[in-house]
Amino acid sequence: MLLKGKKGIIFGALNEQSIAWKVAQQAKAAGADIVLTNAPIAFRMGQIDELAKELDCQAIPADATKLEDLEALVEKSQEILGGKIDFVLHSIGMSINIRKKKAYTDLKYDWMQKTFDISAISFHKLMQTLWQKEAMAEWGSILALSYIGAQRVFPHYSEMSESKALLESFARSFGYHFGMRNKVRVNTISQSPTPTTAGTGVKGFDQFLDYADKMSPLGNAPAEACADYCLSLFSDHTRYVTLQNLYHDGGFSNMGMSEIMMGETPE
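== Enoyl-[acyl-carrier-protein] reductase [NADH] ==
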């Protein structure tokens, strides 16, 4: 019961492929009380209502790019949960340019701005809402999911690379203020490529999934393991971890070349 008595909001559960879906299931099993949320369209396209029923919790539609939706969500969540929020997961990302198969050298800029708003600026809007409403409990934890594309070139990841870099910067900058005021920590997790609905929309995803798995000494980290890591960062065991981008990728981020990729058998 790692999270017994803790209250949290989880953004981004769409279906069983979603990392946020796994986090919600494991957080509930670990004793937490949670509220699920996603964009209104996700309630029509996904299965979030089924997850809410399974976990006996409430799911609230909210567009994370709209301050009025976030304000209403935070207020309603505190009413439902009966107090301040102990942890929040931001698991949101979407690129229209990627969906429409636009080359990085021929992007539509209004779509790019939408990508930034959904995938990164929404994180700042969320934290600003939590800050202004003084909704976070002392020693709380705010977490967002990122990807190593923020630091390295992956041609088909398009402007999501810049989105993740911005997301990580927001975590550091806002994390300073949250830490100084009420010891709330803010971190990002740079996860292995994971076959979520968003991930599989990237061109060449299957090939890179295989490449990353062979390059990583431990192999790709699955969604369930990422959920375990999220829970550890929500818990009191990581109270002094903040302003970090934490790699959860089987070691991929520190690899140059592996023997498997060179056609050799590891010793």
